[in-house]
Amino acid sequence: MALDKPYRDIPGTTIFDAEQSRKGYWLNQFCMSLMQAANRERFKANERAYLDEWPMTEEQKAAVLARDLNRCIAAGGNIYFLAKLGATHGKSFQQMAGSMTGMTEEEYRDMMIAGGRSPEGNRRLGEDGSAQPHRQPQGSSTKIGL
After folding, report:
1. Phi and psi at residue 122, to the nearest 5°
2. What range defines the domain where residue 40 resides?
3. Cα torsion for 87, 90, 96, 102, to the nearest 10°?
4. Is residue 59 part of a domain?
């Protein structure tokens, strides 16, 4: 039986759940391999050859080669593992996040300092307007003050 995933319709968001974890297992293992200097050097010397040592999908490999982090995430990548890919090429997490939003590093930094993105259009609302309708009290035993 498939799990109910009410978070699937949050605009612009990929939730790293068990399904995504399974999908991106080898992509994330590849990223973790970049923690070792020898592997980083091998990867930088011949990226495709190094990627071909991993049983990743062609889509995952293409996303890595294109440095398209949004595609990597859609293909099961976890941003914390993908950070190893960015670091291998001298990119900070802030630079990576900026690239994922279509902003420069400076634009991204300034947006975050100013309080982040506006929540407008970026929330999933229940029928009653609550962002988490599944957490609404049910029955008299959950009422406060009883």
Report:
1. -115, 25
2. 14-89
3. -160
4. yes
Q: Which residues contact 143 (CB under 8 A, 6 or more apart)?
A: 137
- Residue 8: DSSP 8-state: G
Cβ–Cβ < 8 Å for 61, 51? yes
Residue 84 lies in a domain: yes
Q: How many CA atoms lie within 13 A of 131 on its CB side?
A: 6
Maximum C-alpha span of the chain: 68
- Sign (positive/negative) of CA torsion 61, 63, 65, 69? negative
Which domain CATH number covers 64? 1.10.700.10
Number of domains in the chain: 1
pLDDT, one tens digit per residue, over 63-98 is 999 999 999 999 999 989 999 999 999 988 888 888
Q: pTM of the prediction? A: 0.72
Contact between residue 40 and residue 34 where contact means Cβ atoms under 8 Å apart: yes
108 belongs to a structural domain: no
In the three-class reduction of DSSP (H, G, I as helix; E, B as strand; rest coil), residue 34 is classed as coil
Domain-embedded: residue 118: no
Q: Is 39 exposed, middle or buried (0-12, 13-18, 19+ CB in 10 A)?
A: middle
